[in-house]
Amino acid sequence: MSCPYEYISDARVSELLSWQSVFEAAERALESVSTGDAYQTTRTKLRVGQGFNFVNVMTGYLQDEKYGGLVNLFFNPFRGNRNLEPPLPVVHSDITLIDENTGVTKAIISGGEPMRWITPASSVIATKYLHRKSKEVLAIIGAGNQGRIHAIALQKYFNFSEVRIWNRTASKAEHLVTELNRGLNKPIFVNTNSIEGCVNGADVIVTATHSTQTLVQKSWIKIGAHINAIGVSSITTELDADTYRACKIYTDYKEGAEVELKHIKNFGVQFEGQIGDVITGKIPPPEENAITIFQSLGMAVQYCAISRLIYDLHSAK
């Protein structure tokens, strides 16, 4: 008996996607929370037994002719996987794309590549609407998967003169810089020896680490800079409290912020609103000299948009 639905692998997703199409999908998803076309749950976490294995689930429906879809996203960090023989990836993710008229599964899409593309694409759109000054220097804190792909996506869209990369293990940043400079007429990507040296004078900053310690201090950040804060923890922040107090803070969706960002509100700050409300004009953009933060959580309708894009491209080919 043949499988009643498609399985679309990470390798296939990588073949299908282009940055321009993903930027467009990300903007529609962010906008949808303001236009009333987004229906989604916040992240639900289940601990599996007494260990450190978790299942995270988000469900969403995006009502849109081009990017509409109904999905369940499963994001499962199982720390013991690295100790298996042979070892497995610590994180496994799948997206179930469902027919919104019948409830029947249309496709299972491996979640690794969609997550790698949609997260930086959302940061690009946030930067587009929140940062109103020239964009010459980009600072990336963290040379892991999200640091790498943010460097690629933001450089693709904005064409910075210099992209600085810092990582706690310096050799990892050096290797990434070498990779990203390969084939360029002149080197644009540089590694820095300190976080302060990376951030100082940067127009746009990305924090994308799993650090349990505060990394960035307010005194290092220039007036008018924009920060995409990707590494979200329920108890710690990569930015210090003074940075949050000095900035205008925006989120992808308010329901998620109310659940997952209480520790940031405890700094005595208020969130300005959702990026989608800036896109639609429901709230004004920040002043040119404001320091802004996009506190990225990730939301289900982002995966609706990118899953529909992937499914349609896959079906057409």
From TrEMBL:
EC number(s) stated in the UniProt entry for this protein: 1.5.1.1, 1.5.1.25
Organism: Pyrocoelia pectoralis
Protein name: Ketimine reductase mu-crystallin
Lineage of producing organism: Eukaryota, Metazoa, Ecdysozoa, Arthropoda, Hexapoda
Reaction catalyzed: (3R)-1,4-thiomorpholine-3-carboxylate + NADP(+) = 3,4-dehydrothiomorpholine-3-carboxylate + NADPH + 2 H(+); (S)-cystathionine ketimine + NADPH + 2 H(+) = (3R,5S)-2,3,5,6,7-pentahydro-1,4-thiazepine-3,5-dicarboxylate + NADP(+); L-proline + NAD(+) = 1-pyrroline-2-carboxylate + NADH + H(+); (R)-lanthionine ketimine + NADPH + 2 H(+) = (3R,5R)-1,4-thiomorpholine-3,5-dicarboxylate + NADP(+)
Pfam (any one): OCD_Mu_crystall
Subunit structure: Homodimer. Binds the thyroid hormone triiodothyronine (T3); T3 binding inhibits enzymatic activity.
One GO MF term attached to the UniProt entry: pyrroline-2-carboxylate reductase activity
Name of the top EC class for this enzyme: oxidoreductase
InterPro entries per UniProt: NAD(P)-bd_dom_sf, ODC_Mu_crystall, ODC_N
Annotated family: Belongs to the ornithine cyclodeaminase/mu-crystallin family.
Domain of life: Eukaryota
